[in-house]
Amino acid sequence: MTPTALRHAGIVGAGSIGVAFAIVFARAGWRVRLFDPDMQRRAAAPAEIALRLDDLARFALIDESPAQIAARVQIVDTLEAAVIDADLVQECAPEQVELKRELFAQLDKYSPPQAILASASSFLAASEFVDQSLPGHARCIVAHPGNPPYLVPVVEIVPAPFTSAAATTRAIALYGEAGLMPVRVKKEVTGFIFNRLQGAVLREAYCLVRDGVASVDDIDTVMREGLAPRWSVIGPFETVDLNTRGGIASHARKMGPSYERMGAERGQHDPWTPELVAQVEAARRAALPLERWDARVSWRDRQLMQLARHRKSATHTDD
């Protein structure tokens, strides 16, 4: 996706996420400056970018040659050089509060006043590492990507209570221009949406292994061959909405008590109250009136058929 104006991204941190973000922005036509304090990481980044771009080209997932896209990425030797003219600064440093606090003080000092300062933090909220005495604190935000973002396009936009509405809106627009799918997280919670959902699955998976219910391989099989195909087409709410005639309200009446008992086994008491079910049902019915339920079920099945066909053909293709 080509932005309407030439954009500049400054990326701080040339690990796997920083390299991946460089590909995202360069693929969208942005000019990218990438910095890492580790000289070895700076030296390694160009080859890593080239390798990933070659793979994307092999699967026809880029519209230009790898060389054209890679040419938009410049490795720089200082943080100041990375951010000096950036529209968006993407911090990709380790998950350490003090490190991020120091970095954001520098980012605020050296970047243009209109630049969005975003952290790729997976768990830490911006209010944990951005000092409100920082002159530009209102433009600081978390932008947590899926990994790798050039293949998993969702990016969670998590403003702090002190982040301005204008900065949040601008961040959402910029990431959208870069070809990602921004999701606004309404409040700061540890792990945001992505890792809280992933964490819920992982906690139960570990418990099932611990309790001798299933092997690691069998749990992966249930996810890979059972839940994952549906979730790759539709999310968990739409999945259960389409699984039960009458939609999600019917599903909650029939299955809710069993899910509540399973939660109680783990010491978690989070029943689906009538008010909560009504809220979710209202959202689903706004998206899909019940008179269109049968048609949507057929659509889901056709999507799964396409996926099954792809997976079947992929088994006959070498890596």
From TrEMBL:
The chain crosses the membrane at residues 6-26. InterPro entries: 3-OHacyl-CoA_DH, 3-OHacyl-CoA_DH_CS, 3-OHacyl-CoA_DH_NAD-bd, 3HC_DH_C, 6-PGluconate_DH-like_C_sf, 6PGD_dom2, D-isomer_DH_CS1, NAD(P)-bd_dom_sf. The keyword Iron-sulfur does not apply. It comes from the Bacteria. It is an enzyme of class 1 (oxidoreductase). Signal peptide: none annotated. Homodimer. PANTHER family: 3-HYDROXYACYL-COA DEHYDROGENASE FAMILY PROTEIN (PTHR48075), LAMBDA-CRYSTALLIN HOMOLOG (PTHR48075:SF1). This is L-gulonate 3-dehydrogenase. It comes from Paraburkholderia bannensis. The lineage of its organism: Bacteria, Pseudomonadati, Pseudomonadota, Betaproteobacteria, Burkholderiales.
